[in-house]
Design a protein that fits this description.
The chain is of the alpha/beta class and about 260 residues long. It has one domain (about 5-245): UDP-N-acetylmuramoyl-L-alanine:D-glutamate ligase (3-Layer(aba) Sandwich), CATH 3.40.1190.20. Strand 1 (about 5-15), helix 1 (about 20-30) and strand 2 form a beta-alpha-beta unit. The chain is globular. It contains 8 helices and 9 strands. Bound molecules: adenosine-5'-triphosphate and (4-amino-2-methylpyrimidin-5-yl)methyl dihydrogen phosphate. (4-amino-2-methylpyrimidin-5-yl)methyl dihydrogen phosphate binds near residues 12, 14, 43 and 108. InterPro entries: HMP/HMP-P_kinase_dom, PM/HMP-P_kinase-1, Ribokinase-like.
């Protein structure tokens, strides 16, 4: 029998297949890890926006945790859209019952089209209950600003922000720069030892970026499950993102999905 690293995503479904659980599962499959999914909510959305959201009952979230963790050997977990405080509490309870070392928390707050994927009241719970469990958190710039309640405009203030986010409990912090203006995209990783690592790539001029954050966090989760270190993973992750965004596929009429078939 072939042994395969097993991971789980805890996130919402995107009916159009580009973001959320759908992006995670495609990335995991491409990177050759076996993936389970614990669904927190269902969205009616496409590349033009989110038309509806139905969070999943917390009882069935708890049952999904039990079903997955009492059978599979889950090495790494990624969280995505959690929608509200009740769902955050259910997920934190599940992660406390079934702890994993490799926990990647993508604090998804707002979809590309502007829809809220985490109610403002739930943000404090994410900071105080979920972040301390995480090996890595991956806010984008806008999410980092919301988490800290101020604007981040320069690399020094972004490094200071990463330190402040690390003080909330996660071992490592990755602030993503996809939302920064300019011809380059820079992400900064603050590692547990206090070092900063900047990763810069040319900005691809496209609106076809539906699910970029999910895909990056899922890629990192897959590689953590395979035993790689964050600083080894990041250059590969950036190359994967560059290809998955650059070699775009013709799907939908708005913020199109990525090409998860690219080599990575
Ligand atoms: N136009 C682009 N060109 C090249 N790389 C990009 C581009 N947009 C995003 N990226 C890369 O994709 C990854 C995800 O970053 P981004 O800031 O878009 O995350 P995000 O906002 O959380 O994504 P999402 O909106 O899907 O939740 C990062 O590594 C970032 O550098
Ligand atoms: C269910 C779900 N999870 C996450 C996202 C974020 O992705 P994006 O910011 O690219 O819309 C999304 N749109 N939908």
């Amino acid at each position: 029998m072939i042994q395969v690293p097993q991971v789980a995503t805890i996130a919402g479904i995107d009916s159009s297949g580009g973001a959320g659980v759908n992006a995670d599962l495609k990335t995991f499959h491409q990177e050759r890890v076996y993936a389970a999914s614990i669904i927190t909510g269902v969205t009616a959305q496409n590349t033009l926006g989110v038309q509806g959201i139905q969070p999943i009952d917390t009882q069935i979230i708890a049952q999904q945790f039990q079903a997955v963790f009492e059978d599979l050997e889950i090495k790494a977990v990624k969280t995505g859209a959690l929608f509200d405080a009740e769902r955050v509490e259910a997920v934190v309870a599940g992660l406390k019952r079934y702890p994993v070392y490799h926990l990647v928390v993508d604090p998804v707050m707002v979809a590309k089209g502007g829809a809220t994927l985490l109610e403002p009241l739930a943000i404090q719970k994410v900071k105080t209950s979920l972040f301390p469990l995480a090996e890595l958190i991956t806010p984008n710039l806008a999410e980092a600003e919301t988490l800290l309640g101020r604007q981040l405009t320069q690399s020094e203030t972004i490094e200071a922000a990463a330190l402040e986010l690390q003080a909330m409990g996660p071992k490592n912090v990755l602030i993503k720069g996809g939302h920064f203006a300019g011809t380059e995209v820079s992400d900064v990783l603050l590692t547990a030892d206090g070092d900063f690592h900047w990763y810069t790539s040319p900005r691809i001029d496209t609106v076809r970026t539906h699910g970029t954050g999910d895909t990056l966090a899922a890629y990192i989760t897959a590689k953590l499950a395979q035993g790689q270190a964050l600083t080894t993973i990041m250059p590969q992750a950036k190359a994967f993102m560059q290809a998955a965004i650059g070699e775009s596929i013709a799907v939908g009429h708005g913020h199109g999905p990525l090409n998860h078939w690219v080599a990575g």
